[in-house]
Design a protein that fits this description.
This protein is mainly beta and 97 residues long. The protein has one domain (18-94): Jelly Rolls. Helix content is 9%, strand content 41%. Strand 4 (47-50) and strand 5 form a beta hairpin.
Length: 97
C-alpha cells in the first residue's frame, strides 16, 4: 500500500537536519527568501498583506510549506494597513544543500 505525500515528508524530515532564519519586517518591503518553507508571523498591531491578496491579522501567521529539496523563489511583497506598530517576522526553514 502506497504512502501519501504527507507521510513520506514526515519520514524524510526525521532524517534531515534543517535550520530556521528569522527576518523582522517593519515597513512595506519586497522579500525573496531562499528556503523550503516560509512563515509570516504578524506580531504588530496593523493588518499585514502578502502580495496584496493574503491578509494576516495581528497575532496570526501563514505558512507556505514546501518539501525538503524544494526551494521557494517567489518574491513576496509585504505591506501594512491600519494604525499602530508594524512587525512581521519572516521565518525561513532552510535545508542543507
Amino acid at each position: 500500500m502506497a504512502q501519501n505525500d504527507g507521510e513520506n515528508k514526515k519520514q524524510f524530515e526525521q532524517y534531515v537536519q534543517y535550520q530556521y532564519s528569522y527576518t523582522p519586517i517593519t515597513d512595506t518591503a519586497q522579500k525573496k527568501p531562499v528556503c523550503s518553507s516560509v512563515t509570516f508571523v504578524n506580531q504588530g498591531a496593523q493588518t499585514a498583506f502578502i502580495d496584496s491578496q493574503l491578509r494576516i491579522l495581528p497575532g496570526q501567521s501563514f505558512t507556505f510549506e514546501g518539501y525538503p529539496g524544494e526551494i521557494c523563489i517567489h518574491s513576496f511583497q509585504i505591506s501594512f494597513q491600519g494604525t499602530g506598530a508594524k512587525l512581521v517576522i519572516m521565518v525561513c526553514k532552510e535545508y542543507p544543500h
